[in-house]
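Work Package 4 report. The design task specified in the project plan requires that, given a folded chain encoded as structure tokens, an amino acid be chosen for each position. We show below one input record used in the internal validation round.
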């Protein structure tokens, strides 16, 4: 799956209509990002630069509530990756580079969040969104793990996501 809306829609739409829809989605996402940036900047102005440190600390300590119905890890890995792909359609472009029973890897070459926060000059703040990836995997099934060494938000050419069953 490359990330086209036609991958999940019951009836195909034209490339032109997809571009229009995705631009509308990006505008909504950008509005939310701009509000977040203004909020952070107002807090920095009032409380000082340590506000960014609070955001960094919050990001590092973020935990999600684990699923109570976690299943067999290899099956959950497949399900998690299928859900990830569906959730990223339109806003991301990717290629699956690893497809093994206990490991899946992706190279993401487009992320609207990275584009937006970099346009706003706040990639560091945008990384808060990226920081949710690992807790999301672990909350899906505590026997799953996540590794990433490159991040579009940080200016890398790709995000390399590897999801795997813990040994």
């Amino acid at each position: 799956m490359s990330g086209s809306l036609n991958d999940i829609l019951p009836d195909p739409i034209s490339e032109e209509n997809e571009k229009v829809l995705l631009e509308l989605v990006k505008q909504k996402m950008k509005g939310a990002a701009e509000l977040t940036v203004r909020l952070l900047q107002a807090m920095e102005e009032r409380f000082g630069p340590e506000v960014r440190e609070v955001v960094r600390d919050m990001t590092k300590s973020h935990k999600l509530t684990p699923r109570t119905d976690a299943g067999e890890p290899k099956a959950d890995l497949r399900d998690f990756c299928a859900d990830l792909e569906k959730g990223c359609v339109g806003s991301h472009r990717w290629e699956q580079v690893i497809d093994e029973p206990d490991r899946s890897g992706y190279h993401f070459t487009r992320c609207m969040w990275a584009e937006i926060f970099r346009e706003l000059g706040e990639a560091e703040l945008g990384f808060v969104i990226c920081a949710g990836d690992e807790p999301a995997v672990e909350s899906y099934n505590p026997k799953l793990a996540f590794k990433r060494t490159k991040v579009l938000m940080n200016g890398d050419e790709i995000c390399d996501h590897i999801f795997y069953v813990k040994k």
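The CA atoms of residues 17 and 63 lie 38 Å apart. Validation will be extended to a larger panel in the next phase.
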